[in-house]
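HUMAN: Would you supply a protein with fold tokens?

ASSISTANT:
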Amino acid sequence: MIRVDDPGAPGDILPDESTSDVRTVVGQLEQACRHVCATDLRHWIRHDFFPSHVARYSKGQRGGPVYWQLATPSASFSAWLYYHRFTQDTLARLLNDHVAPKLQHEERKLTNLTQDAGPNPTASQRKESDAQETLVGELRAFRDEVERVAPLWNPNLNDGVILNFAPLWRLVPQHKAWQNECKSAWDKLYKGNYDWAHLAMHLWPERVVPKCAKDRSLAIAHGLEEVFWREDDDGKWQPKTVSDEEVVALVAERTSPAVKAALKSLLEAPAPAAGRGRAPRRKKATTRRAKAAASSTVPAEPRDPAPRQNASTRTVDATVLDQIRSAIATLGGNAAKSDILDTAGLSASQWTLSINALLADGSVTKTGQKRGTRYHLAQDPS
């Protein structure tokens, strides 16, 4: 089962704002569901249900959620998957049936907004375009991550929820605690702590198969007991003598070039950008502070462009400046604002002061105007 938080789309989790389909997804929290139905049910599903569900299904011997929310950092788009109906092509169907059409729709909307605004957009048009650009950027990152994981996706319920979820850790930025737990499981899986798992054999047969010759429990878990072990006359299990050629052949049988290529891409993927989550609320607070400052009776300082630039350089966090420089270098030295923010994992509120400081000290230059503005490292002539 695949549901998406995408109003009006096929498979939307709230078709026609009906609660009947929701109760299929959140049955164990039906009382809470009824409580929020009178307010903003979609907001509750988007931001509040999954943390409650994780907590409820991670107690005792149960290993985690059966309804999985894969989302963009702001949770403006989510996909809901049902654990007990996973198949090897679940992520491929999510990508082709839901994510790709959604991204195409939002890209067209961004293009129309840009064209309608023209070369001199109003403040409201800029705000709407910036919000749309952020959404498109998040969707592209979401698509890229699903594309990376889909070729190696091979769920096995016997591995448990956390190990099946582990390769998807980048796709739950909206719930940091669960993301960290999945990332920890992924790191341990990578190091060989869970080589009994089917996923470990699927991804690293060259490591797991030889271990089966030394550890009978692993051989049993992977159906290789008869290959590597025998029972002697005293009822004790002894390792068989297996040639290196046989081991190589067993590894080759379990190795997929497509899976290996996807695994390499996943392991080399850059760290995900920091999620902005509930940024609108923080922006309101900032706006209130700005209004309060504007209404202050303290006299404004005299305008002096040069000293103000130097002050900006001193007050900006040096780490943020380094992140921007590094992002520009990563993007090939010819980067747009939105790409720099996504790559550096920074918020829009950190941008203006920081980029002005870099332009002032000459370490960064820019070309173009408005939406065509591009930033370059000073030593980069491109």
In short: Confidence is low (pLDDT under 50) at residues 17-21, 275-314. Residues 308 and 374 are 24 Å apart (CA to CA).
